[in-house]
């Protein structure tokens, strides 16, 4: 009876071996999430002010109220591009590199 109790305690001693193997993929996923979070904050804001100042007011000579409107459209498009890139990268993150090759 004592042998079976000891065996069951030994099997519950720590996390299974496959758990430690997933730490690399967790770190990779968190790096991807952090990268796209920073990109989501900086890219639309940067494109908003840059397009407003240099493109719409600078080279196209638009009024300030018109340049606000068109710069906001550029920022919204940038948000959609970043979201689409994140979904694409997250979708393909877990797939093996040679998925399509049949040797």
UniProtKB/TrEMBL annotation:
GO terms for biological process: vacuolar proton-transporting V-type ATPase complex assembly. This is Vacuolar ATPase assembly integral membrane protein vma21. Required for the assembly of the V0 complex of the vacuolar ATPase (V-ATPase) in the endoplasmic reticulum. It comes from Xyrichtys novacula (Pearly razorfish). GO terms for cellular component: endoplasmic reticulum membrane; endoplasmic reticulum-Golgi intermediate compartment membrane; ER to Golgi transport vesicle membrane. It is found in: Endoplasmic reticulum membrane; Endoplasmic reticulum-Golgi intermediate compartment membrane; Cytoplasmic vesicle, COPII-coated vesicle membrane. The keyword Endoplasmic reticulum applies. Keywords: Cytoplasmic vesicle, Endoplasmic reticulum, Membrane, Transmembrane, Transmembrane helix. The chain crosses the membrane at residues 33-56, 68-91. It is a multi-pass membrane protein. The keyword DNA-binding does not apply. InterPro entries: Vma21. Belongs to the VMA21 family.
């Amino acid at each position: 009876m004592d042998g079976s109790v000891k065996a069951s305690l030994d099997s519950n001693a720590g996390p299974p071996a496959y758990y430690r193997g997933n730490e690399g993929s967790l770190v990779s996923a968190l790096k991807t999430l952090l990268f796209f979070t920073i990109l989501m904050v900086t890219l639309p804001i940067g494109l908003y002010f840059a397009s407003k100042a240099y493109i719409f007011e600078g080279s196209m000579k638009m009024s300030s109220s018109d340049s606000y409107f068109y710069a906001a459209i550029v920022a919204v498009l940038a948000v959609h591009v970043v979201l689409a890139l994140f979904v694409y990268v997250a979708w393909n993150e877990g797939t093996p590199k040679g998925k399509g090759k049949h040797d």
